[in-house]
UniProtKB/TrEMBL annotation:
It comes from the Bacteria. This is 3-oxoacyl-[acyl-carrier protein] reductase. Coiled coil: none annotated. Belongs to the short-chain dehydrogenases/reductases (SDR) family. It comes from Enterovirga rhinocerotis.
Amino acid sequence: MDLGLTGKRALVLSSSRGLGRGIAESLAAEGANVVLTARSEDKLKAAADAINARGKGRASYIAADLAADVPGVHAKAVEALGGPIDILISNTGGPPAGTALSVKPEAWTPQFQAMVLPVFTLAGLVLPDMQKNGFGRIVIVASSGVIQPIPNLVMSNALRSSILGWAKTLSAEVAKDGITVNMILPGRIETDRTGELDEANAKRLGKTKDEVAAASVAQIPAGRYGEVREFGDVACFLASERAGYVTGSMIRVDGGATRSV
């Protein structure tokens, strides 16, 4: 199947590693040109070099703190891609683990500014060109916690749910312009972040990391953690021309772990 991604211009946030990098790799493999972003230039260069070594789509990168300068990142991405952004992959880092009773009131605002506000702001910058061109894809990486709250991740559950309400509203407003807005919800995907969460839960529960991971796997019908490549390929389809009639949706990539219908 030709996904129609050859030559498309994509900005992929938080993409030096993990899910963001996986999405960038899938897009580039289908011929899209991608700009990676993160704060670590060394990791970004390594990721971009790996993508470019495989050929087809090309990768460049911007080392920056997105929350500190969203307009600057957008302008640099347009320059690097040689034109307006066709595909925005909104992927932001997760907040610290914690329970609803343990998180202090003053902790909420900085996390909102770091992982939610940049998503809203950047969409506002890319949408005018998408509307003008009659094509656009916004794919937001969230979490299965927006459907089934995850214990000890209250900040992620709450803040990502605010993005969910915004994205569903936006999707209805721009669908007529050939723009789709979807959320992709990872379950337990094998990444550094997943390992960090397993460590945090192990400490909280007085267990080993391996015990926590085994308990998680036991709750997943697929019987394993997902692979980054599997997640990246689903996001790649949502960003493609072939997914033009999919919008306002939440796509789960969780091995069947989320129990709700």
